[in-house]
Design brief:
Distance between the termini: 27 Å
Cofactor: Zn(2+)
Family: Belongs to the peptidase M14 family.
CATH topology of the largest domain: Aminopeptidase
Largest sheet: 8 strands, mixed
CATH architecture of the largest domain: 3-Layer(aba) Sandwich
InterPro entries: Peptidase_M14
Number of strands: 17
Active site: 242
Keywords: Hydrolase, Metalloprotease, Protease, Zinc
Number of domains: 2
Strand order of the largest sheet: 1-2-4-3-5-9-7-8
Structural class: alpha/beta
Length: 388
């Protein structure tokens, strides 16, 4: 497709990897200051500017925010891919002109700059902004609410990353997930919820071309402390985006592309075969399960077990010198028949040593797993630098 060729040659190369802080996007904001309306919506708890970008001059008002959780940066990269796309003058010009005349897209590319700098989910005060929708105890929460009330959007986009633990019964991982949040405890299908579902169905239809069977949806239990639920309750269609994990791409350079494609679909810039969009189709998108690990070693022999067992390893993301290092630890030990992994290996009944020890302890950091009787056989080894 034409868009794939454009993207491979034109995505925003100034933003790469998982660690994206304000200092990384300031040069881009400076680049676009004559192209888009860019202003400061307020300051964070630590006094950091929180910029807002307006794209287009249409009557349909859309509000999107990214890095509400500071360590969730994939959608920020996708937003700047989108800005780069809208700015270019070579491809999809009629579609872009239509977008600019139809929509006014207000973007808060980094709602939690303090958390982004520290690479933490919470803000500088240790508060999860996505659980602060009612108390509005933090400056960042107040800024988002003030923007929401001022511009009165007809659609909200709540942009996040999800952990690599989500997948489906068929063994495929959840690369991208969506949610049309509930508006009340009964999960009533309000008009705003239905409209959000229709948008998700539309985006899912496109994504199936690129990642078939790897799009999921979240449980829609109501939590009024969450921003999406609060805005949905207020009657504004709200969509939760979750950028997930694809293969062994721990920098999430692949997933950013699928979020970018989703935005193009949402704004009618990129369309697939015409189909009838019905909110009921939303419920055919499989619900996310916590059934994935980064690595599983199968068929391990332990003296204490009669049957072979499996060892699951997960990575913790640690900020070191402005680089995200992935520290492996033992997440689970057992038959793990219902679990899957991005990388699986078969020990074929071998006894193993972990960190030169025979004992396996859940939660323990791990550097390597080797064959106890043949130390030249390495089943798992920590990568000393960040995962490429």
């Amino acid at each position: 497709m034409e868009i794939e060729h454009w993207y491979s040659n034109n995505f925003e190369t100034h933003l790469r990897g998982r660690y994206i802080a304000m200092k990384h996007i300031y040069p881009l904001l400076d680049l676009y200051k004559t192209c888009y309306e860019i202003s400061v919506s307020g300051v964070s708890e630590m006094g950091q500017d929180i910029p807002i970008i307006k794209v287009g001059n249409g009557n349909k008002i859309v509000l999107g925010w990214s890095q509400m959780h500071g360590n969730e940066s994939t959608t920020t990269k996708a937003l700047f891919d989108f800005l780069r796309f809208i700015h270019q003058k070579d491809n999809f010009q009629s579609e872009i002109e239509s977008f600019l005349s139809t929509y006014s897209f207000f973007i808060l590319p980094m709602l939690n700059p303090d958390g982004a700098k520290l690479y933490t989910r919470e803000n500088a005060n240790g508060v999860d902004l996505n659980r602060d929708a009612q108390e509005l105890s933090q400056k960042e929460s107040q800024i988002l609410r003030n923007v929401f009330e001022k511009i009165k959007p007809s659609l909200c986009l709540n942009l996040h990353d999800q952990r690599s633990i989500y997948g489906f019964k068929n063994g495929k991982p959840a690369v991208v997930s969506f949610l049309s949040p509930a508006a009340d405890k009964k999960r009533t299908l309000t008009p705003s919820r239905k409209l959000a579902m229709e948008y998700i169905v539309k985006m899912n239809h496109l994504l199936q071309y690129y990642i078939p069977g790897q799009v999921g949806r979240y449980d829609d239990s109501f939590n009024e402390a969450c921003v999406g639920d609060t805005f949905q309750k207020a009657g504004v269609p709200t969509i939760l985006f979750e950028a997930g994990h694809c293969d062994t791409d721990y920098q999430r350079e692949k997933t950013r592309k699928y979020i970018f494609y989703s935005l193009l679909s949402l704004f009618n810039i990129l369309e697939t075969d015409k189909e009838i969009i019905n909110h009921k189709t939303y419920f055919q998108i499989p619900e996310n399960l916590k059934n994935y690990n980064d690595f599983i070693l199968r068929n391990v022999k332990l003296e204490s077990e009669k049957k072979f067992i499996s060892v699951a390893i997960q990575y913790r993301e640690i900020l070191k010198n402005e680089t995200i290092v992935f520290e492996p630890f033992i997440d689970e030990i057992g038959d793990l028949k219902t679990k899957f992994a991005y990388i699986e290996r078969n020990a074929q009944g071998a006894e193993i040593l972990t960190n030169s020890q025979q004992n396996l302890t859940v939660g323990e950091n791990i550097s390597e797993i080797i064959d106890k009787n043949d130390k030249s056989v390495v089943f798992f080894q920590k990568i000393n630098s960040m995962i490429a």
